[in-house]
Amino acid sequence: MITPSTPTETIDSKRVPLRKMPQGNMPVVGMGTYGSDSVTHEAVAESVLGSAEVGYRHFDCAEVYGNEDVIGKSFEQMMAGGIAREDLWINSKVWNDHHKPQDVIDACKRSIDNLRVDYIDLYFVHWPFRNFHPPHCNVDTRSPDSHPYNHSEMMETWETMEKLLSDGLVRNIGTSNMTQPKMELLLRDASVKPAANEMELHPHLQQPEIFNYCIEHGIQPLGYCPLGSPGRPERDRTATDTVDIEDPVIVAIAQAHNVHPAIICIKWAVQRGQTPIPMSTNPRNYIANLKAVVEDPLTAEEMTALAQIDKSCRLIKGQVFLWEGAKDWEDLWDLDGTITTL
Length: 342
Ligand SMILES: NC(=O)c1ccc[n+]([C@@H]2O[C@H](COP(=O)([O-])OP(=O)(O)OC[C@H]3O[C@@H](n4cnc5c(N)ncnc54)[C@H](OP(=O)(O)O)[C@@H]3O)[C@@H](O)[C@H]2O)c1
What we know:
Layout: E1 18-20, E2 25-27, E3 31-32, H1 41-54, E4 58-60, H2 68-80, E5 89-94, H3 101-115, E6 122-125, H4 151-166, E7 173-176, H5 180-189, E8 196-200, H6 208-216, E9 220-224, H7 248-257, H8 261-272, E10 275-276, H9 283-291, H10 300-307
Parallel strand pairs: 3-4, 4-5, 5-6, 6-7, 7-8, 8-9, 9-10
Antiparallel strand pairs: 1-2
Helix pairs in contact: 1-2, 2-3, 3-4, 7-8
Bound molecules: NADP nicotinamide-adenine-dinucleotide phosphate (NAP).
């Protein structure tokens, strides 16, 4: 039995705007569930249940987070408590070492079982690589089997995602951590285009090219690390990283609205057209993050000011997915507009 904390305030979930997806409607803000090193699986499951009590209906899960079996108990409890399955929006993702067709099917069925549901609303390919690394490994670790993006492999995985869709195990399929050149190839060859692309998006990493490309092609961008992931572990930090919630433009707008700078990051994200998935185990914070999308929007001038503070500061660089011989983490992100090869 998961015990949520007593909510001090609730937001009617019907007030939370929805984004129309190929199958169903997705709330414009979701709860992240990656506890990394610092938050236990039980604490994440408590915040999932607690956040449902205050009005969240959208949850961003993944098998690699290692907590789907515990979070599943929270979903079971909320449905037993009267929240209908069709009012929930649940994401999950297939990890890099399960990209072969039967492995994708098995991973999806495992997530469905662990999450204690009959289907997943939005199922992602977590990274467009089969490159695998042990959990919590050092960022300099290189797997000898890792190699640059291989489109045939990606299509084999994607065709299985399409099968999950036609078999009814999932309602929508998506990609994550894609670049525009990889997305162009996928759109050229896929029978079903991705409904969504989950990517790092916060005011200091706005990724305007792939963001606009997704919007133009009807692919909904979901933004991870929407607050600039202030609690990420040391191994995911570098000396050049910037801090969104300390940015003077964000701080000034936050003062004008009398809220924490994190709330400005969420308002900006939703008003720009993406779907942020902030993670919090603190009820005061996750309540504020949901309230952010139902009241006191940013002005056009504030949105313009925020558009100008992009610093192209990628926090989740993905070094552990690099292959022997890669120059550096930028090889994963096709910065010159072409897919990096050996
Ligand atoms: N697809 C992918 O490859 C991928 C990669 C990374 C992450 N994700 C997803 O994105 C989610 C979010 O990313 P993230 O957790 O790294 O970053 P984040 O949501 O930007 O930041 C989370 C941190 O912000 C704090 N916080 C939350 N709300 C706050 C508020 N209102 N005021 C002040 N601080 C606040 C939290 O602390 P408290 O708990 O104390 O509130 C936590 O330390 C993950 O949980 C996961 O679901 C996906």
